[in-house]
Structures are given as C-alpha cells and as structure tokens.
Amino acid sequence: MEFGLSEEQQELVTTVRGLLAKRADSRAVRAAVTSEAGHDETLWQTLVEQIGAAALGIPEQYDGAGFSLFESLLVLEEVGRSLAPSPLLSSLLTAEALLAGADEDAKTRLLPRIAAGEVAAFVDGSGAPVLDGDTATVLVAVTDAGLVEVDPAGARRTRLGSVDQTLRLAAVDLDGATTTPIGDAAAATARAHLVGSVGVAALATGLAARGLEMTVAYSKDRVQFGRRIGSFQALKHRMADMLVLVEMSRSASWRASYAVSSHADDAAELAHVAKAYCSEAVAHVAGETIQLHGGIAITWEHDAHLVFKRAHALGQLFGQPHEHRALVDL
C-alpha cells in the first residue's frame, strides 16, 4: 500500500509547523506550562482562527470545516513536535465522542462551541485523570445515566500533578453536578478511546521527530577529541536507528489515523498497534536524545528533559503498550 499526503494536507502541515516554530519556542513553552490555563491561550486562538485546528474534523452543519479527523491528527503531530501544551487532543476526542454517541440536539449545541475553540473534556467514568478537565467549558461524561452533558460550574475539578508539565490533567468529581442525558455512552466511549489512542500516537510521532532533530543538530555542533561527534561511526549508527523508529512510527500513526478517520473495519486493531509501537519508539528515541546530548541534557535549561518526560507520559496515556498489544488479535 502506498500512502502519502495530498498537496493540501502537506500545505496544512507546513503552515502549522511554521506557526509553531515562531510561537512555541522553548521560552514560550515554559511560560505556557506555568500559566493559569496551562497553555498559550493566544496561540490556541491563532490555531483555531487561522488554521481551524479545532474545527477540521467537525462537519460543516455544526460550524466545522468539514474535513476529517485525519487532518486534525496531522496538526496534532506538529503540536507533538513543538512540545507546546495544547487542549487540541481533549477537544478532538470530545468532538468525536459527541459525533458517535450524542443526540442531534446535543451535537447542534456543543459541536459549534468546540469548533470555535472552547476547551472540551471527556470524562469516561473510569476515574482516570481527565485531559484539560479543570479548564474545559464543554464537559461531557459517561455516567450510569448514559452519555451526559455536565454543567462545569457544579463539578468539583482538581488539577493533578504530572511528570510531564505540558500535559494538563485533572480529577473530575460529578457528585452534585447538574447533568443532562444526551445519548449513547457505549458508542461515545468506544470512539473516544480510539481517537485517544491514535491521538497519542500522533503526538508521540511528532515528539520522536523532535528528539531526532535535536540530537542530529547537537551532533553537528559538539566537538570532542578534535572532531564533531556526529562524525563518529558509532553515533551515526545510533542516530540512524532513531530515524528508523521515527519513520516507522509515522507509518503506523498515519495508517491508524486514516483507518479511524474513515471508520475502517480494522480501525481498532490498527489503533492498538500504533499506540503500542509509537509509545515504545518515542521512549527509546527520548532515551537516546538524553544519552547523545550528554550532561547538558539533564539540566533544567535544556529541552531534552521535556522530550523525555513527555515521552514517558504519553506511554501511560490511554493505555500502556502491553495493554494495547493484548487487544490485538494475532
């Protein structure tokens, strides 16, 4: 099978990459992490208004851009490459959960708000930490009553610490909150888990590419024994192995993203494969990024530790690799 991006998709990737290169450098990422929102709200609005990041996969009848989930995941890969904290993943999976399980009235009310850039979060009832759960203004949950819309004002939401400061996680307690039944919880949950898996795979792929790029650039500058370390054969081999992992991750991520986007029969299997492979690949790439940068990589000022922390956090988000492998019918 041959698979590549269309001219329009490649233009989308190039545009998002250029924007993030200008607006999400190391200083901007660190400032966003410590902000009250947990992300750069101005950058998020730029992504929403100029790129349509939150609206790409939402049908036009709900004020979306009418493209597909696949284009949204291409944007998410670039967000992963940039290290920028962003509510894009939580908003994507909430929108997809609504499309899969909500009634028409709920779709008509909530999807335009997500398309316009309101932060959305999906609470699946398992008690697991919720992405952007403490800041979301569109809150959808699975309860004993089915799929419900939650009034954020009545929910107890507590931000949780994370090894990866670029991820915003929260505990969400719905006791006493006003909820309105809006549809089929099973369908919404299944779709959210699939989108979460391929979304993390996309983030991991972008992050792995970032780790490789940082390492190659450093190897061209760092001099040891009178030579740039990139000229040492042993290090060339290690960086070549990193490149293989990045390219394999991208292949797995794109294939699964397209399958989930198009509701293919093998979408679930491919999503499990992508989540398992990309999580382990980025963990290895992040480890090599630390090793090949040497002592500078463990300083607070360098971004290598951000790559390492995010890689290991993504390995836990929406299931660990061994859990996904167990769900693949071999």
How would you spell out the order of helices and strands?
HHHHHHEEEEEEEHEEHHHH
| CATH arch. level architecture of the domain at 192-326 | Up-down Bundle
User: Outline, from the CA principal axes?
Assistant: globular
Strand percentage lies at 5-15%
In CATH terms, the superfamily of the domain at 192-326 is Butyryl-CoA Dehydrogenase, subunit A, domain 3
The overall pLDDT average reads 94
Structure class: alpha+beta
Measured between the Cα atoms of the first and last residue, the distance is 21 Å
Rg (C-alpha, Å)? 20 Å
Identify low-pLDDT runs.
none
Share of helical residues: 55-70%
Q: Total number of helical segments?
A: 11
Q: Under CATH, the topology of the domain at 192-326 is which?
A: Butyryl-CoA Dehydrogenase, subunit A, domain 3
Secondary structure: number of strands: 9
**Strand line-up of the largest beta sheet:** 1-3-4-7
Characteristics of this structure?
single chain, 330 residues, alpha+beta, Butyryl-CoA Dehydrogenase, subunit A, domain 3, four-stranded mixed beta sheet, three-stranded antiparallel beta sheet, 11 helices, 9 strands, 57% helix, 11% strand
Notes on the protein architecture:
The structure is a single chain. It is built from eleven helices and nine strands. Strands 1-3-4-7 form a four-stranded mixed β-sheet, with helices on one face. A three-stranded antiparallel β-sheet has the order 2-6-5, with no helix packed on it. A two-stranded antiparallel ribbon has the order 8-9. It has helices at 7-23, 26-33, 41-51, 69-82, 88-101, 104-115, 185-221, 233-261, 267-293, 304-316, 321-326; strands spanning 120-123, 130-131, 138-143, 146-150, 156-160, 169-173, 179-183, 223-224, 227-228. 49% of the residues are buried. The radius of gyration is 20 Å and the shape is globular. The two termini are 21 Å apart. The mean pLDDT is 94. With 330 residues, the protein is α+β, with helices and mostly antiparallel strands.
